[in-house]
Amino acid sequence: MLPTCILDLNPCKARNYVLTVAFLLFAAPVFCLAQDHWVGTWAAAQQLVEPRNALSPQDAEDMTLRQIVHLSIGGSKLRLRLSNRFGKTPLHLTAVHLALPVSPSSSRIQPTSDKALTFSGATEVIIPAGAEYVSDTVSFSVPPLSDVAITLHTDQPPAEQTGHPGSRATSYFVHGDQVAAPELHGSQTTDHWYYIAGLDVAASSNASATVALGDSITDGHGATTNGNDRWTDVLARRLQTTQQAANIAVLNLGIGGNRLLEDGLGPNAMARLDHDVIAQTGVRTLIVLEGINDIGTLTRQTDAAPAQHQALVQSILSAYKQIILRAHMHNIRVIGATILPFGGSSYYHPTAANEADRQAVNAWIRASGQFDAIVDFDQIMRDPVHPERLLPAYDSGDHLHPSPAGYAAMANSIPLSLLLAPQP
């Protein structure tokens, strides 16, 4: 029904008004086109790259950098997320391309697959200091569990580099603009990622992402370079074997050395919750595996009084509660993972008091009912004879990080039904 104010118009104006409204009503469906459903298929937590892992100013100037990432779910369209979050000056990329690589262990790409990305229609982009950018959509069909080569060219590096040192993947760089080159001849290599934060894929309407928020055990210390055998990789492969779960992506947002409460190699988990969890595209579920570095760091340099141990445990539990609360505000389910044993670690030299802290935290994870669900990694990974230690078959050798076999055991212990449950 038309508004009563039409009665106050003269007949000519009223007729024109009715015709205009009728035209808009019939034309409206033309503008209500179906929207793509975007989900993150790969992501990496961004941090300030420390000097020992940064590209030298000479290498980063007039540089073509080819980086290979491993996807979880597939789709017909992609868009790339780039980051200058920790840069102090703008990041100027003169060109950015996507292509299918021949192998993660080579700079070679399949030339016919190479496509240039644009940003608001332009082939170059200037990303302000502290900012992130999303590319325009590109038609680029990729199957699940495939690799994509991201090649970019920088003229001048920003002051301070943003990236992800724990890539467990080889990147290739040469001088000059060679973004479309089938192979980067004479390239140097580095096992780090720079400036790339995520790839989103246009997926089915019921697709979603599961984010793994964690430290080096999630980041994959001890995994095989270019082998994609972190626990998150194994989980992604498991999901693809089940039709009901094949539309669930797995995003690894681990940072080596990360802590819940204090900055280390990268911002603390509480500080990066917005960027690394809530802002991920299509996220529905969060798995939290954090706390081992908080417990270990307390006594790494000196002993701590009983009151300090008690305060640390309470601070960890408070951080968990905040993560759960903030995730639920965005309809994200939260799965708590128990902290793995690290007895015998030569890095932390854990004492009986550290072990008591770990046991207290794990008891709360199991019994508090605060998490929507739990995965008991501790139970799977511990040595039954020495429960404060990793099972030798799952130990990388440093008594802190799992081996590839250990990571597989972690992934295989997760009931896929937990990732199919409805949102809170």
Give a structural overview.
The protein is α+β, with helices and mostly antiparallel strands and 424 residues long. It is 25% helix and 25% strand. Strands 3, 5, 6, 7, 10, 12 and 13 form a 7-stranded antiparallel β-sheet that branches. Strands 1, 4, 8, 9 and 15 form a 5-stranded antiparallel β-sheet that branches. Helix 4 crosses helix 10 and helix 7 packs parallel to helix 8. The chain is globular.
Q: What features would you highlight for this structure?
A:
424 residues; globular; 7-stranded antiparallel β-sheet; alpha+beta
Give the biggest sheet. Answer: 7 strands, antiparallel
> pLDDT average, as an integer?
92
Instruction: Identify low-pLDDT runs.
Output: 1-32
Let me know the number of strands: 20
Beta-strand residue fraction:
25-35%
Outline type: globular
Q: Structural class of the helices, strands and pairings?
A: alpha+beta
Helix content percent band: 25-40%
* Number of helices, where a helix is a run of at least 4 consecutive DSSP H or I residues: 11
Q: What is the CA-atom radius of gyration, in angstroms?
A: 25 Å
Helix and strand layout, with pairings?
Elements: H1 11-31, E1 37-43, E2 47-48, H2 57-60, E3 63-70, E4 75-83, E5 91-99, E6 115-116, E7 125-127, E8 132-134, E9 138-142, E10 147-154, E11 162-164, E12 171-175, E13 188-190, E14 193-194, E15 196-203, E16 208-214, H3 216-219, H4 231-239, E17 248-254, H5 273-278, E18 283-289, H6 292-298, H7 306-328, E19 333-337, H8 352-367, E20 373-375, H9 377-381, H10 404-412, H11 417-420
Helix pairs in contact: 4-10, 7-8
